[in-house]
Specification:
The protein has about 280 residues and is mainly alpha-helical. It is built from 16 helices and no strands.
Length: about 280
């Protein structure tokens, strides 16, 4: 009995089981970033334009949505509205796709979780890097296209976007981890997420101004997805940030990342049974 107990402790103290913290994430950064980049290259490996298709398809979608909703809503300045909508839709794409991918992440990586000693945080980091790379290619194309309409957007991007963008990226990481754990534990969660995201999109001021919600604008205040999106868009369009709010968001997102990493370590022995 004592021998079994010591063997169990030796398994729990093994190095692969301890590779769940931020130190491990830093040590393996080149591995999970490169692995995500290979996925990005593989998506359009047989095309002529390659990954440029991500930015182009997003730009075309934004243009069509801007024209249609600008006409339906009878906006006074169609070009400014397209910029407003374009940044909102592009940033929402990062948050929503990260959430959807996270909800099925561990289910799709079941074989690796069961058969390999690779820590679960590696798969979360790889998915996070993949989503950031996809977002970057779409965002840069949209930003450069909109800069032809308003060159001041590039100056705003250089001076004001960095802190809101950091908060957006940190938020995306712990959301992926949260969705991945919930998706592994509750099998219906992955089916519920598209519905929730669609509802959140409709009640978020992305296709319309916040003032359009009227008394329901409180919904935007309690929508964490919109709260991560709005500062990035506002810093680009208005050329200013709310420093106090951004520092508070940075503290909250840092705590979220630490809790997410701790949760992965806490459930590391349960995950193979859940999936």
């Amino acid at each position: 009995m004592q021998e079994l107990s010591s063997r169990d402790m030796s398994l729990r103290d093994a190095k692969p089981a301890m590779g769940h913290g931020l130190g491990y994430a830093c040590r393996t950064a080149r591995a999970w970033w490169y692995s995500a980049w290979l996925r990005t290259l593989a998506r359009f490996s047989r095309t002529t334009l390659g990954s440029f298709w991500m930015g182009l398809s997003n730009l075309l979608s934004v243009g069509v949505l801007g024209v249609v909703y600008g006409t339906v809503l009878k906006v006074a300045d169609p070009l400014r509205y397209i910029i407003y909508l374009g940044f909102g839709v592009t940033i929402w794409g990062l948050v929503s796709m990260a959430s959807l991918a996270g909800s099925t992440l561990f289910l799709l990586r079941r074989d690796q979780l069961v058969n390999n000693a690779m820590p679960s945080i590696f798969y979360c980091l790889e998915e996070w890097a993949f989503q950031l790379q996809t977002f970057a290619q779409a965002f840069v194309v949209v930003l450069l296209a909109f800069a032809l309409i308003d060159p001041g957007l590039l100056l705003n991007a250089v001076h004001y976007i960095w802190l809101p963008l950091l908060n957006l990226f940190l938020f995306t990481f712990w959301i992926i981890v949260l969705m991945a754990v919930l998706g592994a534990r509750f099998k219906d969660f992955a089916q519920l997420m598209p519905i929730l995201l669609q509802l959140l999109f409709l009640v978020s001021p992305i296709l319309y101004k916040r003032e359009g919600l009227g008394e329901l604008s409180v919904l935007a205040d309690f929508n964490p997805f919109y709260q991560a999106l709005a500062p990035v868009r506002d810093s680009l369009i208005d050329g200013q940030i709310q420093l106090g709010d951004e520092l508070l968001s940075l503290a909250i997102n840092t705590i979220g990342v630490l809790i997410a990493v701790g949760a992965l370590k806490w459930v590391r022995y349960r995950l193979p049974l859940w999936v």
